[in-house]
Amino acid sequence: MRTIAILSAVTAIGIAFPSLAADPKPDAVIKNRNIEARVFLDGKIKADTALAADCLADGKKWLDKNAADAAATRRQDPQFFENGGWDFERKYSTRSVVADRYVSILRDDYMDTHGAHPNSDVNTILWDKAENKRISIRPFFTETADNGSTMKAMVKAVIASLRVEKKKRQTSETATDEWFKGVEPSLLKIGAVTLAPSTEAGKSSGLTFHYPPYAVGPYAEGEYVAFVPWEALKPFLTAEGARIFAGARPKDDAKEAQ
Hints:
With 258 residues, this protein is of the alpha+beta class.
């Protein structure tokens, strides 16, 4: 009876906490003596065939590149593999779906090559469900030229947000032009961007820019997320931009970003 009771308790724990019962299986994996690397897609992504195929193809290219790099590094410096192979992981997760059309995806990378510490990176994908392709934020703004008025307004708002975040973390000593010099008024250099969720269903409350460690602060400060409310960019919106932006940033979204 005691054995039955213990087994019942273990089963109950597994039901209450599925992650304890079984880890999710990767959607793609490479495992050999040089590297173990995994790619995960969340459920919302996998429910969209075209988006899932795009993310998986992207993830497999990343796996192949890092497997080749690991093999080459082992041939050149085998001493770095005395404690085992590299450990890499990439996760694609849905950040927001706006107007039932624009899907913002976070792409988070973890990389351990047995250096001083593991590293991480973050990038983003903006997916147009109507066209089944990746897009930029260009359709939402009247102009996005490098050093143009729109991009300069974005940079100003991004840096203001980063200063607020650093003050919250008590790291204002690194809120300097030197650390922010990489945030440039160019779509390709301002930072990885997503459409932020909104308190108004189907809308976006603005833009969130995602920065990995080292991008706008020392490694110890970790990742930063800068939020730019849509109102700050209202003068530059196209008709489509005016259609999708409204409402405010949900409080829980702001807390998750800290």
